[in-house]
Design brief:
Layout: H1 2-27, H2 38-47, H3 54-67, H4 85-98, E1 103-106, H5 110-124, E2 131-134, H6 140-151, E3 157-160
Parallel strand pairs: 1-3, 2-3
Length: about 170
């Protein structure tokens, strides 16, 4: 019974924290404005080398709607391997960049981060969007050079592994 009580209290505190954060997000004015021409975004989506699935299209619309209001977005995009989560993230990053901001994409492995870098660069370079790759194992010189480019706004989308979570990044 003591274990059940502790588990219940943990769940209760978790739910309270989630509700507190939701309320805080809905009532704060810390979010940034992200404006982009809807026609540009539609042209970008149509230019992709494949058509979005219905689920991808719905996810993109939900995210774009969230990004179009001046509120912070909290959203989890979930799907099986190969279900197209990356292209949805790419479209959201495109919107952020074309709204005047930078974006970050985090991958769980170095191999996947490098694949994302190749794919993002191949598609987004046509739109004057520059991507950079930050992964563990980079030399200090490489990392500092990349971070300098990010700070100067020369990198629009930073792609990496957990290395992007470091405080100085």
């Amino acid at each position: 019974k003591a274990r059940q009580r502790i588990k219940y209290e943990e769940l209760f505190m978790y739910v309270l924290k989630i509700n507190y954060l939701k309320n805080k997000i809905n009532n704060d004015n810390l979010a940034i404005e992200r404006n982009i021409d809807k026609d540009k975004l539609d042209k970008f989506i149509k230019s992709l080398p494949f058509e979005l699935t219905l689920d991808q299209d719905k996810a993109v619309n939900d995210i774009i709607n969230d990004l179009s209001i001046k509120k912070r977005m909290n959203r989890l995009l979930q799907g099986d391997v190969g279900s197209g989560k990356t292209v949805v993230a790419m479209i959201a990053a495109y919107k952020a960049v074309k709204s005047g901001y930078q974006a970050t994409i985090m991958a769980p492995t170095m191999i996947l981060a490098k694949q994302h870098m190749e794919n993002f660069t191949k598609i987004l370079s046509k739109y004057d969007i520059k991507c950079g790759l930050l992964v563990g194992g980079m030399t200090a010189k490489q990392k500092n050079s990349l971070l300098e480019q990010v700070e100067k706004g020369e990198i629009d989308i930073l792609i990496g592994t957990h290395a992007i979570l470091e405080e100085n990044v």
